[in-house]
Design goal:
The structure holds 2 protein chains of 2 kinds. Chain A has a 3-stranded antiparallel sheet with strand order 1-3-2. Chain A is mostly helical. The chains are: A mainly alpha, B mainly alpha.
Chain lengths: 380, 369
């Protein structure tokens, strides 16, 4: 089955290009997306992506050419302009980031639509095909597109490696970087420019509307699995490539499947899996850990209470009434007793009464001592 | 009623209805929730359409509004787990819901009324064709009725809960203490945003709703500090964007919704540059004015000090002033001219002296420091 699948990809020229495009896209957006997510700029990506649309339209109107280099250059320039406007608005007025992002996103997109509708009514024959910039269409990728994508990706990744140390510093300790004289402003602009490049190279495959997910999702998933930046970049790239490949191929093989949304669905699957099941940070892991801690507190409290009751009675193995134990316990009485019974720390006298075993007494005494000790430490 | 008049009325209704919740979204710093909601409601609309098979059923609106609320809660749920920051959570939830909607449309509903183009563009130009009739009497376009109801709902909500909205927006802590439940206000506002987005969806599509919700309030925010004025200004700017947008669209033969968004941006730009107090120009003038004001004050203080210490008469000579003040000669002569104009100093030949007014002012400045 998998073999046949690969045969299909390698054998079919179009699919081969689609697959290569998806790999380039996934790799680059995984790398740059990591920085976007860690710097809490996920939504900046969304704004930039939408802001590229008027650039595509204007570049086509001015040159009448569908050369990917020209269209993507226009896209990049207008995306960059959008970013600068966001910066200008947030730096010079009291308008907050979210509003500035939303405005640039929607107004630029509106301008893009105005251009697209004008182009649709132009009498030239070559006008068709700009629609793919909205939702992306991997199946229409050409070798020329692939070359431009590869060059953009190469530049972006090379720059990232070149400034790796500096970027790492501004991601994790912006103020420290500032204090030791790192060129913060330059690095900020450089990193944002790389982000614009990454978004631009994904436009034909994923489209302006959903390109931001290509940045955010792989990085968000990768964050669950590691605390190391280099590992996170690597994982995000792998996730990006995986979802990109699956999405691009699915949409190429099934009719009426827009590529962008298909990739997003795969990406969301990876994110959900990671959020739930990643070791250490996953939600299921959290849940298990919390439950185990609660259980521990319940059982140790029960043992200590049994010891406390026994001290009044002089006989440490005197059985105590269930109702009394339940009243001072931490809930889940039956389960707690069953667990202690299994470990041989308590025994059941009759229907309603429980007592410590010699082993249980030892543990209870140790726990109480430990508790008092930690209490002492806490006080002094 | 002519078709173009109907379109203009609908555009104005959309802009007005959007501006009202938009004011609170901007003030509460959740502007991008409108983006998330307006995208995600598509899934609700599509799913409801598959169930009822009727594009004009009110169930579509209800389903969409519910989806909007689900989006908000889902995003907040993810933020609550503290695994992801707010921006990433928003950036993950709505693309998924939107993508599912788009896939369903393009894969299963290829030739019905819904298509991916109108999801993004809206189709306000076609609104006069979708008419409502009552006992065979034409009641006008359906869109106008829907948006009127939405607008009334928004106005009623803001009118009834004005005080609560105001306190919950500007001082959530106080609102909690007073027993206003900011959480309730938050979700009420999100419901309102969802309903407005659904109503406007047919006309302007899912992305340009954001422009209509956020841009007019952002422009108004640069002009006033009062909530009531901000609401009125936002509605005014919204209406202006709608009407001028329609006009532009007619002139250049382009998308009406796109032109409305474009014009809202243009209005913001004008306010951004020319706003009195907070505009770009006003701030530039103020900065310059402050620089000159400071320089003439320094000159007056310098002359006062020279008077007190009975310093050499050369201290007062115009040609030496730049040397004492560490200014360049050109700037110095400009400052002296400004000082003369303001009546702070007098010039006798080459010698500068303070006027009584200038002396008083210089003493005042020193005394206050």
């Amino acid at each position: 089955m998998i073999n046949e699948f690969f045969q299909l990809i390698i054998g079919d020229y179009t699919l081969r290009i689609v697959a290569m495009g998806a790999i380039i896209l996934g790799l680059t957006s995984g790398c740059l997306g990591t920085f976007a997510v860690l710097r809490q700029q996920s939504l900046l990506g969304d704004a930039i992506a939408h802001a590229t649309l008027p650039g595509v339209g204007l570049a086509f109107m001015l040159t009448q050419s569908k050369n990917p280099l020209i269209l993507l250059l226009g896209a990049g320039m207008s995306g960059w302009l959008g970013t600068m406007i966001i910066l200008l608005i947030t730096k010079t007025t009291r308008i907050k980031k979210d509003t500035a992002l939303g405005m640039v996103l929607s107004v630029f997109f509106g301008v893009g639509l105005v251009f697209l509708t004008i182009i649709q009514k132009m009498p030239t024959a070559t006008k068709a095909g700009l629609d793919k910039f909205l939702f992306g269409n991997a199946a229409t990728l050409l070798m020329d597109d692939l070359k431009v994508m590869a060059v953009l990706a190469g530049i972006a990744i090379f720059t990232l490696i070149l400034f790796w140390k500096e970027f790492k510093l501004i991601v994790f300790d912006y103020d420290f970087a500032k204090s030791i004289g790192v060129r913060i402003h330059f690095l900020d602009v450089l990193l944002t420019t790389l982000m614009v490049m990454t978004i631009v190279l994904g436009l034909q495959t994923v489209g302006v509307v959903l390109m931001s997910a290509m940045l955010v999702a792989p990085a968000a998933a990768a964050r669950q699995w590691t605390d190391k930046l280099s590992v996170m970049v690597l994982l995000a790239s792998i996730f990006g490539i995986l979802a990109g490949l699956m999405g691009a191929l699915t949409s190429s093989l099934i009719e009426n499947m827009p590529t962008g949304p298909t990739i997003v669905v795969y990406l969301s699957g990876i994110v959900m899996f990671s959020l739930l099941l990643a070791p250490h940070r996953g939600l299921v892991f959290d849940w298990i850990k919390i439950n185990r801690q609660r259980e521990q507190i319940r059982t140790s409290t029960m043992l200590k209470n049994l010891l406390l009751f026994s001290e009044i009675n002089t006989d440490p193995f005197h059985p105590h009434d269930m109702a009394a134990l339940r009243a001072v316990g931490r809930g889940a009485f039956n389960r707690t007793m069953l667990q202690l019974l299994k470990k041989g720390l308590v025994k059941r006298h009759d229907q309603n009464r429980w007592a410590l075993t010699p082993e249980g007494l030892k543990v209870a005494k140790r726990l109480t001592a430990l508790h008092e000790e930690s209490f002492d430490v806490g006080l002094t | 009623m002519s078709a173009s008049l109907e379109i203009m009325i609908l555009a104005t209704l959309v802009a007005t209805a959007c501006a009202i919740p938009g004011v609170f979204l901007v003030l509460r710093r959740v502007a991008l929730m409108s983006d998330a909601i307006s995208h995600a409601i598509l899934l609700g609309i599509v799913l409801a359409f598959f169930v009822v098979k009727d594009i004009s059923s009110p169930w579509l609106i209800i389903a969409a509004a519910v989806t909007g609320l689900i989006t908000v809660s889902l995003t907040e749920l993810i933020i609550h787990t503290r695994k992801l920051k707010e921006d990433a959570a928003i950036g993950l939830v709505f693309p998924l819901l939107f993508s599912m909607g788009v896939i369903l449309i393009s894969h299963y509903a290829g030739d019905v009324h819904l298509d991916t183009q109108c999801v993004l563009f809206g189709e306000i130009a076609f609104s006069p064709f979708d008419r409502l009739s009552f006992h065979d009497i034409d009641m006008g376009p359906r869109g106008i009725w829907v948006m009127s109801v939405v607008l009334l709902l928004n106005l009623a909500f803001v009118g009834l809960f004005y005080k609560e909205l105001k306190i919950a927006t500007f001082d959530p802590g106080l609102a909690t203490v007073l027993g206003f439940y900011p959480i309730f206000i938050h979700y009420a506002l999100m419901s309102l945003t969802s309903i407005t987005a659904v109503g406007a969806f047919d006309s302007v599509g899912s992305i340009l709703v954001v422009a209509m919700m956020i841009t007019p309030p952002a422009a108004a925010y640069l002009l006033t500090d009062r909530l009531s004025r901000m609401l009125i200004l936002s509605i005014f700017f919204g209406t202006m964007s709608a009407l001028s947008g329609y006009w532009v669209a007619q002139r250049i033969d382009a998308s009406i919704a796109g032109s409305m968004a474009l014009m809202s941006g243009v209005i913001f730009l004008i306010v951004f540059i020319f706003a009195p107090e907070r505009g770009l120009l006003a701030r530039m003038f103020f900065k310059r004015w402050r620089r000159w004001d400071f320089a003439t004050q320094m000159l007056a203080i310098h002359l006062l000090q020279a008077e007190i210490t009975h310093a050499d008469a050369t201290e007062h000579v115009v040609s030496h002033m730049y040397h004492h003040m560490l200014w360049d000669p050109e700037f110095t002569s400009e400052v002296i001219a400004q000082g003369l104009e303001d009546g702070l100093i007098k010039k006798f030949g080459e010698k500068l002296t303070l006027t009584p007014y200038g002396r008083e002012k210089a003493k005042n400045i020193i005394a206050h420091q």
